[in-house]
């Protein structure tokens, strides 16, 4: 009887789970090259090995290499062995990102036969901040990971490369510097090697380094291949001077003194500077290369992709350049098949991850339907009403009636009542980002309780947007009531819908609603964690991702930030349900509300990047990072609109949708960014 009565919901839930299974299964096949690559999640892993002389490959007595990976994903081709070691590469991310952002590069390098380890830097992802390190400039993680790879018997110790994006590019530069064989240290004199090691100097473990989206190169071992990967228009770096000493912007970098100096090219003002994009320079001169064959001699190279900074880790062009660099540095690994750098499959894996995102979001609705049939939650399907004589009654929510809504989209006054507030709210959300971000730090100070670098100001901005929108809705309602009573001399046409949609009924019903919301979100994350344990895939599109995290250390912080974001999601849900149109289908109403939620933000982004990609100069240079931080907010708000409106029809109030949005999107936000303090339980 139960299955027959709930057949539709069970079928929908099965579709969602099958969608997730399909996305994860095929995503796993793609990233593991048909399971010929072992993918391992490394947490707090250490190993110990000995140092081998670069001169003759013999062990140097008294020198111990201690490797450590706090949080990483290891791609190990199954054909790798101690007898046939393979080149290995450590990849890392930029500020506010995590190890998964380097998966396009990891997938493409691993399928070409390289051992790849993509890691979290300190203060990011699953690598908890030690408590005294600013997450932006934190470099901890990469060099220890290089040592970890060095100690693996499957790794060719003479071919270890590193690469990182943005502040991970800075980490790459600093690791090259740290790893350099300092003056006075000779590989022909093991005594000096041991002495320098014991004095804290290092041994030249790295053979090649590619800085993605980072332009400052300090120093490295003279025998190390080094490259830069830049965007045509980078929001942060690659300003230099031309041959005559005039300042240049990023898109002019290949014709700048910075590029010429990096590749070792000689230049003068009369001849100008023209460093070839992707050209391999040995001793300052461009040489011919064959992709897949290691370049003879130490080389320098600058790659420029037609994109912006955050696309360096999410484009086929940039990924192709990463592949090209390590092919030039190490050649095609022994026994591996050569693939041109343009031959890429990571986009298919990304498509599978996006499909999984759709499945996990869709899962919410049938799961709520089924949970509402349980005795504990059945009463939530009824809404509280007050009769004219003051009695309180409860009636089943009529989803079809609720979808019809209260307003008809016609008449000048009706149009003005709907569109003027909508335009005001959407423009406020976009154009308030800059001023609110500027003073939010004074209002909300980062601390051990709220340890993340950008989550605080984003929460303050969201609260301001929510309260502004709610105020506009209340004022619009009040003005219309005044017009009805004092101008038209009639009963108010527009009731106080804010009170209607926000009414929950009782404290007990609210607690049950909160428990139901938490149950749904926990179920979603159980699916995610199980999916990760089996397939090592998550649900993502670029930086918009639902990823695994250390529940014990991060959950208390998620709940604290949820208290802030909850204010926004409650206000937003009220506004979503207040704007209901009788003469439009529900999908059109949802589309209108979603557009209102994101149009202003998208407009600001369009102005910023339309100007930037046209002129090479940003509309608001001071917002170069803050706008990037909010890129994922557009899909978040679209999904949140759908969730709040659909679930309103299930309960007759906004609370279930608002609470699910609060818990889900706060968890997504907090688990995917950086913290400059350690996570605490209090």
Report on the structure:
- The strands form four sheets. Strands 1-2-4-3-5-6-7-12-10-11 form a ten-stranded mixed sheet, with helices on both faces. A two-stranded antiparallel ribbon has the order 8-9.
- The protein has 682 residues and is an alpha/beta fold.
- About 2% of the residues have low confidence.
- It contains 21 helices and 16 strands.
- A hairpin with a 5-residue loop joins strand 13 and strand 14.
- Helix 2 packs antiparallel against helix 10, helix 12 packs across helix 18 and helix 18 packs antiparallel against helix 20.
Structural class: alpha/beta
Q: Output the number of helix runs.
A: 21
Topology, number of strands: 16
Shape: globular
Task: Tell me what portion of residues adopts beta-strand conformation.
Answer: 15-25%
Low-confidence stretches: 182-188, 399-405
User: How much is the radius of gyration in Å?
Assistant: 28 Å
Give a quick rundown of the structure.
This protein is of the alpha/beta class and 682 residues long. It has helices at residues 2-5, 7-31, 103-111, 142-151, 167-179, 190-198, 257-263, 316-330, 346-362, 364-371, 399-404, 412-431, 433-443, 455-487, 497-502, 507-535, 551-578, 586-615, 626-629, 633-651, 655-671, and strands at 37-52, 59-77, 86-92, 115-119, 155-165, 208-212, 225-233, 240-241, 247-248, 280-282, 285-287, 299-308, 382-386, 392-396, 539-541, 544-546.
List keywords for this structure.
globular, two-stranded antiparallel sheet, 16% strand, alpha/beta, single chain
């Amino acid at each position: 009887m139960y299955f027959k009565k709930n057949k539709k919901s069970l079928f929908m839930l099965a579709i969602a789970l099958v969608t997730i299974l399909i996305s994860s299964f095929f995503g796993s096949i793609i990233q593991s090259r048909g399971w010929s690559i072992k993918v391992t999640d490394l947490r707090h892993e250490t190993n110990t090995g000995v140092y081998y002389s670069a001169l003759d490959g013999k062990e140097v007595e008294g020198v111990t290499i201690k490797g450590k990976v706090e949080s990483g994903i290891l791609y190990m081709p199954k054909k790798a062995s101690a007898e046939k070691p393979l080149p290995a590469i450590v990849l890392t991310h930029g500020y506010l990102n995590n190890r998964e952002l380097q998966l396009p590069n990891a997938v493409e390098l691993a399928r070409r036969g390289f051992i790849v380890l993509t890691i979290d830097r300190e203060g990011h992802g699953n690598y908890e901040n030690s408590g005294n390190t600013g997450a932006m400039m934190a470099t901890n993680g990469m060099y220890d990971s290089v040592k970890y790879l060095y100690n693996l018997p499957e790794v060719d110790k003479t071919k270890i490369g590193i690469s990182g994006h943005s502040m991970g590019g800075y980490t790459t530069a600093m690791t090259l510097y740290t790893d350099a064989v300092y003056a006075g240290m000779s590989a022909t004199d093991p005594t000096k090697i041991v002495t320098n090691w014991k004095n804290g100097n290092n041994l030249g473990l790295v053979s090649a380094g590619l800085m993605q989206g980072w332009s400052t190169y300090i120093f490295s071992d003279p025998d190390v291949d080094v490259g830069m990967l830049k965007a045509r228009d980078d929001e942060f770096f690659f300003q230099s001077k031309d041959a005559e000493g005039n300042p240049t912007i990023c898109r002019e970098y290949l014709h700048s003194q910075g590029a010429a100096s990096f590749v070792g090219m000689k230049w003068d003002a009369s001849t100008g500077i023209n460093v070839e994009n992707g050209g391999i320079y040995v001793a300052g001169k461009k040489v011919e290369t064959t992709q897949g064959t290691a370049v003879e001699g130490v080389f320098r190279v600058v790659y420029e992709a037609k994109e912006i900074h955050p696309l360096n880790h999410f484009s086929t062009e940039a990924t192709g350049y990463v592949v090209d660099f390590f092919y030039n540095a190490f050649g095609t690994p022994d026994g591996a098949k050569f693939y041109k750098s343009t031959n890429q499959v990571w986009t298919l894996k990304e498509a599978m991850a996006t499909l999984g995102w759709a499945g996990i979001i869709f899962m919410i609705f049938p799961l709520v339907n089924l949970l509402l049939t349980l005795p504990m939650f059945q009463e939530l399907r009824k809404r509280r009403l007050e009769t004219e004589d003051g009695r309180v009654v409860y009636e089943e929510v009529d989803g079809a009636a609720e979808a019809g809504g209260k307003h008809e989209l016609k008449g000048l006054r009706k149009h003005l009542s709907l569109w003027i507030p909508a335009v005001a709210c959407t423009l406020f959300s976009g154009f308030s980002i800059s001023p609110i971000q500027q003073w939010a730090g004074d209002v909300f100070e980062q601390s051990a309780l709220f340890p993340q670098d950008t989550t605080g100001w984003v929460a303050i901005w969201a609260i301001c947007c929510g309260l502004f929108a709610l105020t506009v809705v209340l004022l619009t309602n009040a003005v219309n009531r005044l017009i009805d009573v004092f101008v038209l001399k009639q009963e108010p046409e527009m009731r106080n819908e804010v009170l209607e949609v926000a009414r929950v009924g009782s404290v007990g019903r609210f607690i049950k609603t909160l428990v139901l919301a938490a149950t749904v979100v926990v179920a979603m994350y159980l699916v995610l964690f199980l999916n990760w344990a089996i397939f090592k895939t998550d649900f993502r599109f670029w930086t918009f991702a639902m990823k695994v995290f250390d529940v014990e250390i991060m959950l208390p912080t998620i709940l604290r930030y949820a208290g802030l974001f909850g204010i926004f999601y409650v206000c937003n849900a009220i506004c979503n349900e207040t704007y209901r149109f009788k003469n439009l289908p529900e999908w059109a109403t949802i589309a209108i509300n979603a557009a209102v939620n994101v149009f202003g933000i998208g407009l600001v982004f369009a102005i910023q990047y339309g100007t930037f990609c046209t002129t090479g100069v940003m509309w608001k240079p001071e917002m170069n990072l803050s706008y990037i931080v909010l890129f994922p907010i557009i899909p978040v708000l679209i999904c949140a609109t759908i969730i709040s409106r659909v679930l309103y029809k299930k309960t007759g109030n906004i609370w279930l949708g608002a609470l699910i949005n609060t818990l889900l999107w706060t968890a997504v936000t907090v688990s995917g960014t950086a913290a400059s303090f350690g996570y605490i339980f209090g």
